[in-house]
Write a structure and sequence with these properties.
The chain has 3 domains: 321 residues, Alkaline Phosphatase, subunit A (3-Layer(aba) Sandwich), CATH 3.40.720.10; 119 residues; 71 residues, Immunoglobulins (Immunoglobulin-like, Sandwich). Helix content is 20%, strand content 19%. The chain is globular and about 80 Å long. It is built from 12 helices and 20 strands.
């Protein structure tokens, strides 16, 4: 790999006095608030030129990076999409809200499945079968977009959710393949997400028919890969997919500029976790958790490199902070930009690994700017998980062939060890691929104790739900294996004022007020109910209540006809 660039290094704390503020509370005029755009992608490590790896040709991202804050130490909370995305949308650690296991349901797009069958090939760490389910999270936890909507933002998602629970109808104004900022009502700021799948792990085999734009002979190989033509072919495919992503990002930025919104919008670019290749995705090492993160302010303001630690659990409070909304106290992340930016940068980031598809484990990590400490709760389990999905990749099968033939040794064999030590410790500066476990090295005893204590406090503080097997956790969420259902909302009408409530604690309420009769569905534009509704004339009112992890309530319809 190429060394990380060091020029123009600044610390985020130096920026706090100069970052723009758009409204200091949610009562500020909507016109003062910034538009915010997320250009997200899947399964990318910092294998980009502005992080020191020029293998892929990415002119659009390079230009954006030159005009952005480039975060050099950003980390996902889990090295796989669904638990990571649950942290992003809630500002909570997955293991604290029961979303830590990958995956809980088949349907990951759009609003997500609203009902669940019991078919699953997975078992938990106790060997008990695990059914499909939607995680029931604490009553007080919401998708952070509800706070944006309540403050007047128009929120769109195009198009993946994959939160480990079905997205509530109240989370988005539009959550579909057609969702875009272009439909934002006049006078409202927008928060829009565009997810790019071209770099997803599945594109390693789905894009095999496409031309390789990066030569296999030119790609750098990390130390944990052997010199092998099939390995090189797939590594080059990954870089070629990154070049395809760059074109898609360029197209989206061009659309924003054409609409005259480029200099009126804060733009984030990031991946949901680390790269798609073996020993990357699903791992708790830097190869699975370290990610690219750019934040572009209008006019390229504040551009520079930032080496503060940032966790994806921080994204939700940061977006609220940039919008001038105080993040709720329950959020475990901390804002790293905006009005409510934390007074001190992070000292540590934390990560987790539990069940990945059909293979269960429990691993927790803490990392500071240089060192990584790992705790294996089940050291008797293999380090490598023989995940079926991943074996659609030629490279994975080649690595297994070489392993079985006894042709892997040293760094290339480390991932395939049959048991793990109870603890691991790596110096990420001298050992960037996390291959040399120094847990027994006395020169690191003080740092090891510091990180061990920090991790122990973290596991206790978040009430880590993986302390019990997953099947037991599901039984607590869905007693008797039956998904609970949100209670039917209650509508009270007095004169021209409509008040709505729901008996289910933590439920959110969506409504549609229409001048004509409709048959509402998931994409009917449900509004978030927060204050009494004033209604005149003839109308049809449709109301639904949704609690995360519960089945939605029945839709209640009220009709008011005037002569």
């Amino acid at each position: 790999m190429y060394p990380e660039k060091k020029e123009h290094l600044v610390t985020l704390v130096l920026l706090v006095g100069s970052l723009p503020v758009w409204g200091t509370n949610h009562q500020s005029p909507e016109t003062e608030r910034p538009n915010i755009l997320w250009l997200t992608c899947e399964d990318i490590s910092p294998t980009l030129s502005f992080y020191g790896d020029p293998t892929a040709h990415t002119p659009n991202l390079d230009k954006l990076a030159r005009e952005s804050l480039v975060f050099t130490k950003a980390f996902a909370v889990v090295g796989v999409c669904a638990p990571s995305r649950s942290a992003i949308i809630t500002g909570m650690y997955p293991a604290s809200i029961g979303t830590q296991n990958m995956r809980t349901a088949h349907d990951v797009m759009g609003w997500g499945v609203r009902k669940y069958d019991q078919k699953s090939d997975a078992t938990d760490v106790a060997g008990e079968p695990v059914r499909l389910y939607s995680a029931v999270i604490p009553d007080f936890v919401k998708c952070f977009t509800e706070y944006l909507r309540a403050a007047g933002y128009y929120c769109t998602n195009n198009f993946k959710t994959d939160y480990q629970f079905a997205a509530p109808l109240t989370a988005w104004d539009d959550n579909s393949k057609n969702a875009t900022w272009e439909n934002c009502p006049a006078g409202k700021p927008f928060f829009s997400v565009f997810n790019h799948e071209v770099t997803h792990e599945s594109r390693m085999w789905m894009n095999k028919h496409l031309p390789q734009t990066v030569s296999p002979g030119s790609v750098p190989l990390p130390d944990y890969y052997p010199e092998d033509s099939i390995v090189r072919q797939d590594v080059a495919r990954n870089y070629s997919n990154i070049e395809l992503l760059d074109k898609q990002i360029g197209e989206k930025l061009a659309e924003l500029k054409k609409a005259g919104l480029y200099d009126k919008t804060i733009i984030f670019f990031f991946s949901d976790h680390g790269g798609p290749l073996p020993r990357g995705k699903r791992e708790i090492y830097d190869s699975g958790l370290r990610v690219p993160l750019l934040v572009h302010f209008p006019g390229g303001a504040h551009a520079g490199r930032v080496d503060d630690l940032v966790s994806y659990v921080d994204l939700a409070p940061t977006i609220l902070s940039l919008a001038g909304i105080k993040p709720p106290d329950y959020m475990q992340g901390q804002a790293f930009l905006g009005t409510y930016k934390a007074s001190e940068p992070r000292k540590y980031i934390f990560g987790s690994g539990d069940r990945f598809d059909e293979f269960a484990d429990r691993i927790r990590i803490v990392r500071d700017k240089r060192y990584l400490f790992v705790k294996n709760f089940y050291p008797n389990l293999p380090a490598y998980k023989d995940v079926t999905y991943r074996k659609q990749m030629d490279m994975m099968n080649e690595l297994l062939r070489l392993r079985d033939a006894g042709k892997l040794s040293g760094p290339t064999a480390y991932w395939f060890r049959l048991t793990k030590t109870k603890e691991e410790f790596y110096d990420c500066q001298t050992d960037p691929f996390n291959l040399n476990n120094r847990i027994d090295d006395p020169q690191y005893a003080g740092k090891i104790k510091e990180l061990r204590d920090a991790l122990d406090h973290f596991v206790t503080d978040i009430h880590d739900k993986a302390s019990i097997p997953e099947a037991q956790m599901i039984e607590q969420m869905w007693p008797g294996g039956i998904q609970p259902q949100t209670a039917i909302p209650v509508i009270a009408i007095q004169d021209k004022t409509i008040r709505i409530s729901c008996p289910t604690p933590g439920a959110s309420i969506g409504y549609i007020l229409s001048e004509k009769e409709i048959t509402p569905d998931l994409n009917s534009g449900w509004q978030l109910y927060q204050d009494p509704i004033q209604a005149n004339g003839s109308w049809y009112l449709y109301v639904i209540a949704s609690k995360i992890g519960y089945a939605d309530s029945e839709v209640v319809t009220k009709k008011m006809a005037t002569k």
